[in-house]
Amino acid sequence: MSNLSASIVGTGSYVPETILTNAELERLVETSDEWIISRTGIRERRIASATQSTSDLAAEAAKAALQNAGVTPEEVDMIIVATVTPDMFFPSTACFVQTKIGAKRAVCFDVSAACSGFLYALEIARQFIASGAQKTILVIGAEKLSTIVNWTDRNTCVLFGDGAGAALLQHRPGSRGIRHTHMGSDGKFADILQIPGGACLNPVTAENAGERLNTIRMNGKETYKQAVTAMLDAGNRVLEAAGMNASELACIIPHQANVRIIEAIAERMKLPMDRFLVNLERFGNTSAAAVAIALDEANRTGRMHRGDHILLVVFGGGLTWAGSLIEW
Asked: Are residue 55 and residue 117 in the same domain, yes or no?
């Protein structure tokens, strides 16, 4: 039985042109630039146009990753899109991406694990490559969260943005690639971060439309507590599996939700903040796209070099969480 390593051989990202600043949010809800920055670290976020769908964002990120890797769309065997804002319930957003980039041979499907989706999809791709079943896989995290935000809720509307990031995976001889991944879930905390309506359990009707049940609801305090604990545990588990210390990491790319969460993880890992790639001040929380966008930024700005070890850690609704240790 084959047991090939899977390496990230190319990355790409795309964010919409429109920037929504904290100052502009002050005109929508009762908030302030100082309040948002002090509690989240976010200064601005990108908002997709009315004519842009999640698959449009994903396709642009995918094209950038293919170009970065020097791979043609026809060579792609599989496309996995991690998203909670699909173009439609079905067909999958991945199928729309396939058509938009011309990857005619690819098998396509979506993964729903909220903000943890990109790492869940990365691990699925790794196993397909490890088994020898597929050779070239596009993994994309993409979200148009502006469509599921309640713009009258000041506690959540300041947090989220739109965007997409992509990674192309192949076996690279001589490289260990994605070395270890730990994933976890705990459904008993489903109610602290969710969209309560819009699907079969609680459909949106003419009678309840004013309740905005198809928008994000979050218990911020409990989410913060669970996020720090889960992301730290996931990171420690994969480092332990590799026999490594956090000090040996070239870069840590955490979920871009709140700078306070990242600072708490850095403190517990006894690492300086400059070891972490943080870009949430420019993009906000883009859910499944967040780590993927940050990974592309790290790659293109030289934050890691061939043979370096990087750690990706994420946390999302479900609850879900994951950590991946990667030899670049």
From this structure: yes
Torsion of CA 128, 133, 137, 140, to 10 degrees: -40
* Residue of 95, 182, 251, 255 with catalytic role: 255
pLDDT of residue 95: 98
Q: Is 1 inside a domain boundary?
A: no
Domain count, the chain: 2
> Within 13 Å, how many C-alpha atoms sit on residue 3's CB side?
3
Is there a catalytic annotation at residue 157?
A: no
User: Nearest 5°: phi and psi at 53?
Assistant: -105, 170
115 is catalytic: yes
Q: Do residues 36 and 134 share a domain?
A: yes
Same domain, 114 and 130: yes
Model pLDDT, residue 273? 97
Query: In which domain, by residue range, is 162 found?
Result: 7-170
66-98 burial, b for 16+ CB within 10 Å, e for fewer?
Answer: bebbebebebbbbbbbbbbbbbeeebbbbbbbb
Helix (H) or strand (E) holding 67: helix 54-69
Annotated active-site residue in 180, 285, 299, 309: 285
Is 131 within the bounds of a domain?
yes
The CATH number covering residue 236 comes to 3.40.47.10
Q: Write down the pLDDT at residue 37.
A: 95
Are 283 and 256 found together in one domain? yes
The mean predicted confidence, pLDDT, of the chain is 97
251-289 per-position pLDDT tens digit: 999 999 999 999 999 999 999 999 999 999 999 999 999
My answer on whether 124 and 260 are in the same domain is: no
- Tell me if residue 309 is catalytic: no
| Tens digits of residue pLDDT in 45-71 | 999 999 999 999 999 999 999 999 999
pTM: 0.97
Within this chain, do residues 142 and 234 fall inside the same structural domain, yes or no? Answer: no
Q: Is the pLDDT of residue 1 over 70?
A: no
Indicate whether 169 pLDDT > 80.
Answer: yes
